[in-house]
Automatic annotation (TrEMBL):
It is found in: Cell inner membrane; Cell membrane. It comes from the Bacteria. Mg(2+) binds at N21, S24, G25. Signal peptide: none annotated. This is Ferrous iron transport protein B. Probable transporter of a GTP-driven Fe(2+) uptake system. The gene is feoB1. Residues 3-165 form the FeoB-type G domain. Belongs to the TRAFAC class TrmE-Era-EngA-EngB-Septin-like GTPase superfamily. FeoB GTPase (TC 9.A.8) family. The chain holds residues 115 to 394 of 826 of the full protein. GTP binds at residues 10-17, 35-39, 56-59, 116-119.
C-alpha cells in the first residue's frame, strides 16, 4: 500500500504524544514529563488504504539554534523530510503556539495543523474562526481533542489530501516590514548569485536565519567557498537593521512574527464578552 511519513511537531504539552498514542495505539508517556534524552518515537497505523508512519518529536517553542530540542527538530525536518508535518497547536494558548507555526511555514514543507485542546477553547467561551485563519496561513486546520480522539480521522484525511496534492506547498510569506524585507532580499540575491545553499533550507529561510544570527546556519555557511563574502554582507545588513529599527535583528524578527500572529488572531479570535467573563 501507499506509505505516508508524518512528523508531529509542536510546543511541549500541546498534545503530540496523546495524538500519537491514540492514532498508533502506542503507550508513550503523556503529561508533564521531560525526558533526559532527546529522541523521537515511531508508530504506525493504517487508514483508508494508507500506511502512516508517525514520528513523535520533542516539544519546541521555536526552530532556532537555542536548545538541543530545537536543533533536533529542525534537522529532523530538513534531513528526514517527512512527507507531511502535523503541527500540533494548543488552542488554549494560540499566540505562543502559532509562533512555531510561522517558522514551520517558512520551511515550506507540506503541513497540516491539528488545533488540539479544542475542548479547552470551547470551554473558555471564546469564538475562534479557524477556517479564516486556515485561509490566511494557507494551511488546513483540523480541530482535535487529543486525549479523547476527537478529530483524528479528519486529521488523517487532511494529511492524505495534502500528500496527494503535492506541488502546491505553502505559498504564504510571513512579512517582516520594509527594513528587514530589504535585507532579506539582498541576502537572497547574494545567496542565489553565489549558488550558496545550506542544509537544504529554502533560500528565504536561510537568509532570515543568517540575519537573525543563527549559530548553526552560520557555521554551515562559514565553510562554504563563498562563506566569508556572505557573512560579511550579513554583518552589514544586521548593522543596517539595528541602526534603522534600533533593536537587535534577532528581536526584530521575533517581534515581527508575534506582530503577524497578533494581527491574524485579532481578525479570527474573539475574547469572551464581559457577561461571560468569570472573575474569581
Ligand atoms: P505533548 O507534550 O505535546 O506530547 O503533550 P501530551 O500528549 O503529553 O499532553 C499534555 C497534557 O495535555 C496531558 O495531560 C494530556 O492528557 C492533555 N491533553 C492532550 N490533548 C488534550 C486535549 O485535546 N484536551 C485537553 N483538555 N487535554 C489534552
Ligand atoms: Mg510528548
Ligand atoms: K509532555
Amino acid at each position: 500500500g501507499k506509505v505516508i511519513r508524518v512528523a508531529l511537531v509542536g510546543n511541549p504539552n500541546a498534545g503530540k504524544t496523546s495524538i500519537f498514542n491514540l492514532a498508533s495505539g502506542a503507550h508513550e508517556h503523556v503529561g508533564n514529563y521531560s525526558g533526559v534524552t532527546i529522541d523521537s518515537k515511531e508508530g504506525t497505523l493504517r487508514h483508508n488504504g494508507y500506511k502512516f508512519i508517525l514520528t513523535d518529536l520533542p516539544g519546541t517553542y521555536s526552530l532556532s539554534a537555542y536548545s538541543p530540542e530545537e536543533l533536533y527538530v529542525r534537522s529532523y525536518i530538513l534531513n528526514e523530510k517527512p512527507d507531511v508535518i502535523i503541527n500540533v497547536v494548543a488552542a488554549s494558548a494560540l499566540e505562543r503556539n502559532l509562533y512555531l507555526t510561522t517558522e514551520l511555514i517558512e520551511l515550506e514543507r507540506p503541513m497540516v495543523i491539528a488545533l488540539n485542546m479544542y475542548d479547552e477553547l470551547e470551554k473558555s467561551g471564546r469564538h475562534f474562526d479557524h477556517r479564516m485563519l486556515s485561509e490566511m496561513l494557507n494551511v488546513p486546520i483540523i480541530p482535535t481533542v487529543g486525549k479523547k480522539g476527537f478529530g483524528i480521522p479528519d486529521l488523517l484525511e487532511s494529511v492524505i489530501s495534502i500528500h496527494e496534492s503535492r506541488g502546491g506547498t505553502n505559498s504564504v510569506t510571513i512579512p517582516y516590514g520594509r527594513v528587514m524585507e530589504k535585507s532579506i532580499g539582498i541576502m537572497c540575491r547574494d545567496l542565489s548569485a553565489g549558488n550558496v545553499t545550506a542544509m537544504e533550507m529554502p533560500r528565504r529561510y536561510l537568509a532570515i536565519k543568517l540575519l537573525e544570527g543563527d549559530r548553526e546556519v552560520e557555521d554551515v555557511i562559514r565553510v562554504h567557498n563563498r562563506g566569508e563574502e556572505i557573512l560579511a554582507r550579513r554583518n552589514k545588513e544586521r548593522d543596517y537593521i539595528e541602526k534603522l529599527l534600533k533593536e537587535d535583528p534577532e528581536s526584530a524578527f521575533t517581534n515581527s512574527r508575534y506582530g503577524f500572529i497578533a494581527g491574524a488572531l485579532k481578525e479570527t479570535l474573539s475574547e469572551k464578552t464581559s457577561s461571560e467573563d468569570s472573575t474569581t
